[in-house]
Amino acid sequence: MNNVLPSITVLSAMLSSFAFAMEPVDSETSLNMAIKQANRDSSVASIVLKKDAVISLTSPIIYTGKQALSIEGNGAVLNGEKSGTYDEFYDKEEKVTTVRTNDGTLVFKTAADITISDLSVVDSHTRGIVVTVPENAKGKDLHMTLNNVNVKGSSLYGLHLDDNLSELDDGDLGSAIGIKLDIRNSNFINNGTGAIDFDGIRVDERAQGSITATIVNTNIIGNGGDGIELDEAGAGDVNATMNNVAINNNGAYNEKDLDDGFDIDEGDDGDLIVTLNNLQINHNRDEGLDFDEAGNGNIQATINNVFASYIDDEAIKLDEEDAGDINATLSNVSIDHSQDDGIQFTELGKGQIDAALNNVSVTNSKKYGAKIEQWLVEEEATSEEAQGTVSLSNVMLKGNGKGDNTSNHGVTINK
Q1: Which end of the chain has fewer surrounding CB within 10 Å, N or C?
Q2: d(CA 305, CA 340)
Q3: How far apart are CA 368 and CA 180, in angstroms?
C-alpha cells in the first residue's frame, strides 16, 4: 500500500498539469497562471487562449522557462495599454532624449524556441512582443515563429528580439547563439510612435551567432522608426528572405533623423545575404532598402519584382566597407520619385562589385537614377584595384535630376 500511493500522487499531479496547460485562457489572471505553470513545469509545451478572447493586461506577461513553448491565440487580443513602464533619458552620444525599458506586453526571457499563432497584441505602452536572450545561452539558435500575428500600436518596438547586453544598442556583447525568425501572414502596423528610433520589427544580435529571417505574406506599415531593422555585430551573418511583403509609410517619428523601410546593419566578420521577391516599398521617410556591411564579408543581394515609390532618400542602397564584395542582381524592379539616387551601390576598401540590372526602370529621382561606385580609397584619383562589372539589360532611366546615364566609378558598364 505504501508503495502505490506515491505513484498515484505523481500521476495525479502530471494529469493535473496537463489539464491546466490545455485549458483555454480568457483573462489576465488565467494567462498569468498558465505562464507561471509553464515557467515551473517543463512538460507544459503550449498555452491555448479562448477563441476571440479580449484580454487587457495591467503588467507584462513574462515567460522564463527553458522548454519550447507555443502560444495558440485562436484570434485572441492582448491589450497592453496599461502594461509595463519606461524611463526617459538623455543619450549624450546621439544628443537626443529617448527611453529605455525591460518591459513589453508579452515577454520571453529564454533561449528556447517560441511559436505564436493567431494572436493580436495591441496598444502596448512599451514593446509588443519581446524575446530577451540570456547572456549564458549556448547550443542551438533560438527560433521564433509567428503565423497570423498582428502587432499594432506599440509605443516602442512592435517585435523585439534582443541578444545585446548593452542598453543603448551599441557594443558587441551578447550570447553564443544566433537568432532565427520566421514570420508569415502577419501585420506590424503603427508601432514605434512613442519615442525616437523604435521599429516595427527589430532584431539585435551580438557576439557569436547569425540572424536568419524569413518573412512571407506580411505587412510592415506606418511604424515610427524603421519598418524592420536587423542589426548584427560580432562574428556572424545576416541572411534575410522576403516574399510578398509590403513595407510602406515607415520612419516618420523623428523629423530630424528619419528612418528606413528595411534596414540591415552587419558589422565585423560575416556576410549580408538577402533574397527579396514581390515587395512593395512606398513612402518610407529615409531609405527604402538600406543594407550596410562593414568588416570582412560580402553583400549578396537578389532582388526581384520590387516596386518602390516616393522614398525620401535612396530607394535601394547597398554599402560595403572594408574587405568584401557586392554581388547584386536586380530583376523586374521599378522605382519612381526617390529624393536621392534611385539605386546606389558603394563598395569601399578591398573588394569588387559584380552587379546585374535586368528589366529595371528608375524615374524621377532627385539625383541619379543609378549610381554604382567602387573605391579602394574614397575619392581616389586612380585605383590599382581591378574594375568591377555592371551588366545592364532593358534598363530605363528617365527624368532623373542628375541625368539618365548610370553614374559610376571603378566599374565597367556592359550593356
Answers
A1: N
A2: 21
A3: 37
